[in-house]
Every structure is written in C-alpha cells, then in structure tokens.
C-alpha cells in the first residue's frame, strides 16, 4: 500500500447543517452539501494515499502533517465553506503544499466574484451579479436600483446550485415573488437575466468541465424554457444533443472561452454552465466546483454508453490531475 502523505480535507459547512439519510443497508449516511463527490475509483485512489482532516478543528488540537504533504480539497462552495477555506489557506501558507482546488480558487468561484472576474472575455456575455443581505422587503428594490440592474433579474439565496428558491423578476409588479424565498436573515444574489434563446426560439445549456489542462463537454441540454434542467429526453432530442456536442468540439471559439474562464478562476476541477445563443456566442450562468459532474443521475437510457464514455473520460482527467498534485509534493512542491 502506498505511503499516506496526502490530506483529504473535508469540513462541516459554516451553517453547521448536514443531511442524514438511511441507506439500503439500513445505516445512517451523513451528507454535506456542495462538496466534490468522487467516483469509487477516485475514492479508492485517495483512500490508499491520504488521511482525512476535518474542519473545524477543536481549539488546542495540534495538527500533525506528513512530510511533503499534499491536499485534496473536497469543499466546493465559497459560501458553504468560507471558514474552512480560510483555515486551509493558512495551512498552505505555512507548508507550501500543493493542493487540488486551491481555497483561493474556490473563493473566486462565488457567483458575484465570477461575474466580476469574467468580464470582457470575447464571445462571452457575463451578467452582472450583486450580493446583498435584505433586512426589509424594500431592500430588494433598493438593491436593484442602486446596482443599476434592469428587468428581468434573477434572485436566489447564496450556496444554492439549482433552481430551488430561484425567482425571476420581470417588472416592478413582480417583487412579491421574493417572499417565496426564505430570505429573512440570509444573504442573496441578484443577477441580471440575459435572454439566451437561439434564433429558433430554443434554449441550449452547455455544461463544460475543466479537469487539469483538459476541457470536456459533459452535456448540451435543449429546452423551450429558459430554466433548463436535465429532464426526460426523447431519443430524437438525445441525438440532437450529441450533434450539438460534436459541433462544440470543433469550435475554436468555445475552446477559447472555456480556456480563459479556467485560467481566470484557477480551479483544478470544476464545471461551467453556459447558454449558447448563437454559433459563437455564449452566456455565463455559473462556474464552480459544486456542480454534479461525475454522477450518472438523470442520464437517459438511450445512448447511455455514449454518456458513460464522457463520464469515464472526465474521471480520467480528475485522476491525472490528482496524480500531478501528488507528483508535485514528491518533488517538494
């Protein structure tokens, strides 16, 4: 068995909240939101070479690190794990150890920071996003007006990666919609909505994946609605998705856009959701490591082998990236 010089860094969210479920073996599973979820192969690789370090660490506890350590950061969301990222950054500043998904890069992936960081990339529209903590209902309109946003806008709580509690405000009469969000005492994001419908009136959503220096296209979804999800797809739609997939693979513009996003954010492994409005025009939705990437949930049965091939290629990219981190540690950083 390989010597365990790695640190598998995990954390309890800042909120202290986790999920508890009963599995098929009638045992309790404890789950933490917005974490990197490895495949069994990746988990085995890490388990053979790394010990787990949990944050928060009890006051007075001395953390003993191996010689020439390296870190796998499983905390994928800047808002869920800001305290844990601050502590990991402190350790890295003392040790100089290489890390998979550096805490600075995780913090760069916060929605409002991404909106500022990815401005002015050719062929990419990056909508403005502001962060605010409303205390009264009037704070929504005040934030909207003071930020210079225009209708429509999207409002959602921080640390959410789906359409849960997401509302679209189309005009001044729509602000009552925000009361469907449990916003009291919470921080929210307000984002400029950019219509990304194609000339044919369809909505195309790309999930690109960066693993080390490689770029993958996980899927291209087609919808007649702006809120695109991986729903049940007919065989004909699946065939169209793969045709669009092949078109993207040939697009130098797409590769250039995604490469620039990867460079600016700096994560080793993360997803990028984009709207595809025209041949060489894209709209940014989000870019972070908290996306569902290696899961086969919602995968159609038709052409399943093709989907699994994509996931296998992404998995190999992650394994190669982890091994590069290990190699850097063996070489002394």
From TrEMBL:
<protein>
    <recommendedName>
        <fullName>ATP-grasp domain-containing protein</fullName>
    </recommendedName>
</protein>
